[in-house]
Design goal:
Rossmann fold; 2 domains; alpha/beta; 14 helices; 34% helix; two-stranded antiparallel ribbon
Length: 340
């Protein structure tokens, strides 16, 4: 059965027809058809889980397979300019559970270029360290990018562009993004599979905090924290509209993430075009109930589905890679979020 998609949300031909018929009544009521379409229980999304037991695996091949399963082909990427946004937070060399691993970033670079992308640039603005280059070098990513001649952009100091806040969940009326988001065709969040001290989990959506320039939002992005972490996670995702999520779950972090936790071997790369669906799938892999993560509950049936029955799973089953992450009862954001 054929399907159509928008923002990574998929509708069958029958469902699209029903939605189109319904739109006539909605126009008269003043309700946005697109908003109704995203809110509709008909909406579904696809995620992909690829098995990768170590960082020596064929990560390029896994990402290529994931793109194919998600319906992303050379036709979509030929001639496109790609921005990869990894998760770089601390300067702990040899600690593969803190930052997006360099081999995962390299795998994505090679995959996009092999499908005809015109260029790939890496952009990041760490919130915990002002010296981004120190984090870049200590993570091992700096030398890899030098070898591959891939440019890196420190978005913390990029001139910003101010746009209306399309999410409307926080008190912020506008959001300021680095100018590079206007210069690229695809924005890819390359997150790390981690617990989080304040949000419960940090995945593809929370990773977008690092694209917000420190010049405007401070360190560690204090303006966003003060406006509400769950609210601004949703606002940024709704306004930026990123194109793809690739989550490094080969080695994740459990316990007191996103920095002080301990490594946990999962052996998976999770991908998708709909960010709430990707993050919900990641939560289930971690043994976390996505409905107990506030920003996902806020995004559900608006930015995308988080109900397991509305997410088509490609590649590995969740059960084959699921590993309940350690949670800490003393951390309020961890209480009561365990998947039952």
């Amino acid at each position: 059965m054929s399907s159509s998609s928008y923002w990574g949300i998929r509708l069958t031909r029958r469902e699209l027809l029903l939605a189109t018929l319904a739109s006539g009544a909605l126009l008269g009521s003043g309700v946005s058809f697109l908003r109704w379409l995203i809110d509709s229980p008909l909406a579904s999304a696809t995620t992909f889980i690829g098995r990768a037991d170590s960082y020596d695996a064929d990560i390029r091949g896994i990402i290529l397979r994931g793109l194919n399963e998600l319906g992303v082909t050379a036709t979509h990427l030929r001639g496109k300019r790609i921005l990869l946004k990894p998760n770089l937070v601390e300067t702990h060399e040899g600690a593969p559970h803190i930052n997006t691993h360099p081999h995962v970033v390299r795998g994505a670079i090679e995959a996009f270029l092999s499908l005809g992308a015109e260029s790939v640039v890496i952009g990041e603005g760490p919130g915990h360290r002002r010296d981004t280059l120190e984090v870049l070098e200590a993570s091992g990513l700096g030398s890899l990018l030098y070898e591959d001649r891939i440019p890196f952009l420190n978005v913390n100091y990029e001139t910003g562009i101010q746009v209306p806040n399309r999410g409307g969940q926080s008190r912020l009326s506008t959001l300021t993004f680095p100018r590079v988001v206007q210069d690229v065709d695809w924005i890819v969040s390359m997150a790390k599979l981690k617990t989080h001290h304040w949000a419960g989990a940090t995945l593809a959506m929370k990773n977008l905090f690092g694209i917000m320039p420190g010049l405007y939002y401070g360190w560690p992005k204090n303006v966003l924290h003060q406006a509400g972490i769950p609210q601004t996670i949703v606002d940024i995702t709704a306004t930026l509209r990123p194109h793809l999520a690739i989550v490094d779950g080969i080695v994740g972090m459990e316990g007191d993430g996103p920095i002080m936790g301990t490594p946990v071997q999962v052996g998976a790369i999770i991908m998708g075009r709909n960010f709430p669906a990707v993050d919900a799938t990641c939560c289930r892999i971690m043994g976390i109930d996505p409905y107990k993560i506030r920003y996902l509950r806020m995004a559900d049936q608006w930015l995308g589905p988080i109900h397991e029955g509305q997410i088509e799973q490609r590649g590995e089953l969740i059960s084959t890679v699921q590993k309940p992450f350690a949670l800490i009862d003393a951390i309020p954001a961890h209480r009561g979020i365990r998947l039952r």
